[in-house]
Every structure is written in C-alpha cells, then in structure tokens.
Amino acid sequence: MKRIIVVLLLASLIFIQSCKKSGADGETTLPPPSGQTYGDGWAYAPMDRQIMADDGDFAVTGSGFEYKDGWLGVAEDGFFDLACRYEPGSGESFTFCFDCFAPDGGVLYAGIWLYGVDCTPDDGTDGVWMSFSDGSAVIEGEEFKIKKGAVSVRIEMDSAEEKLTVFADGVKITERECPPKNGGGAVKAVSAKGPVYISNAAFRIGI
Q1: pLDDT confidence bin for 16, thresholds 50/70/90
Q2: Residue 33: pLDDT band by 50, 70, 90 thresholds?
Q3: In angstroms, rounded to a whole number, what is the distance separating the alpha carbons of residues 100 and 107?
Q4: Which of 16, 102, 115, 156 is the most exposed place for a label (fewest CB within 10 A)?
Q5: How high is the pLDDT of residue 7?
Q6: How far apart (Å, rounded) are the C-alpha atoms in residues 174 and 132?
C-alpha cells in the first residue's frame, strides 16, 4: 500500500512540474525597453500605453497583439501593423527609430517608400523592406549580424543623396544607394512570426 502511495505521489509531482514547465514555455519574458526619449520634431510612441485610433502620429492595426511591459507585440499567434501617419515625399529625408525584441524565431519587418500603408512584405508591391530577428538583420536581401536580444534600430533615409543608412545599437550596419520610390511613400513596421515586440517607435522629417 505504501509503495502505491509513493508511486502516486511521484506521478502527481511529475505531472505538476510538467504543467508548470508548459506554462513557462508559453510566456515571453521581455527585457526593459531602452528608455530612449525624443525631443521636438519627433513623432513618438513609447508603447507604455495603447496607441489610440485618433493618434495623430501612428496607427496600429492587427489582431492578437498586446501592450506589455512597455512593448507592443505578439507572443505567438496574431500580428500587428504599426504605420507612421506622415508619408514623406520623394524630396524629404527622414529618420525612423524603434527598439526590437524578436527571440525564438520571431521576425519584425520595417518598410520605407511603400506604395501605401496597407502594403505587406510579400504582396509584391514596390518599396524597401528590411527584417530584424534575434542576432540578424536582412536589408534588401543582404544579411548582417547584430546583437542578440533587444536592439535599438535607426533607419536614416537621405533623399538628396539617395542614400539609406541603418544602425543597430548605434553601430552602422549598412549604407547603400536607395532612390526614392513611388514618388514618396509609407513608413511602417509589421510583425511576422512571433514572438516579436517593438517599443520606442519614433519618426521625424530630417536626419
């Protein structure tokens, strides 16, 4: 009888530990955002509060996304689409910044010179897309190694020089020719496979 009780107790403990592990695996532990702040002339969304429908600077659409610990994102299923409401013209230089956290195969796309705010990375429309994942950035098909974990991204578009420059945590990872497309166009970030989170989104005209 004692043996049966011991076996049952051990089985119960194994089951409880298994349940705890499964719950932990479903949670994404988020690091603190960089805390970067921006002054006059910037449209800024720190993600410590919900972006409302009447926000004058950014618009968020999607499903299954959440605001958590200063981040906007998706843990697994779902997606978010964060668009800047100001679409720069072909003669306007601009800067787009954000913090990105995309562990465990998550991917965040950023797009510039897009035909419209409803464009997606795989819809075949014109524009420039780049992606950020854990330790990697892909810009116009070329891959670059970046720091693993949360990373601060800065995208500078110099329209006069037709030059695109991308930084990760203050380190320049690429500088390349990039003529304006579509006579000017939308700037946005969109999640692909989760988990992926964005924070401290900021946009301004000028670099």
Answers
A1: very low
A2: very high
A3: 9
A4: 16
A5: 31
A6: 14
Q: pLDDT tens for residues 75-121?
A: 988 999 999 999 999 999 999 999 999 999 999 999 999 999 999 99
The 10 Å CB-count burial string (b at 16+, else e) for 6-44 is eeeeeeeeeeeeeeeeeeeeeebebeebbeeebeeeebb
C-alpha closest to that of 80 among 105, 106, 104, 56:
106
Nearest to 31 by CA among 131, 105, 134: 134
Dist CA 58 CA 49 (whole Å): 13
What does pTM read for this prediction?
A: 0.86
Q: Are strands 196-205 and 94-101 parallel, antiparallel or unpaired?
A: antiparallel
d(CA 201, CA 59): 12
With tokens 């465990």, the residue in question is 104
Backbone angles phi, psi at 4, to 5 degrees: -60, -45
134 Cβ neighbours under 8 A, 6+ residues apart: 102, 103, 104, 105, 106, 148, 149
pLDDT of residue 26: 58
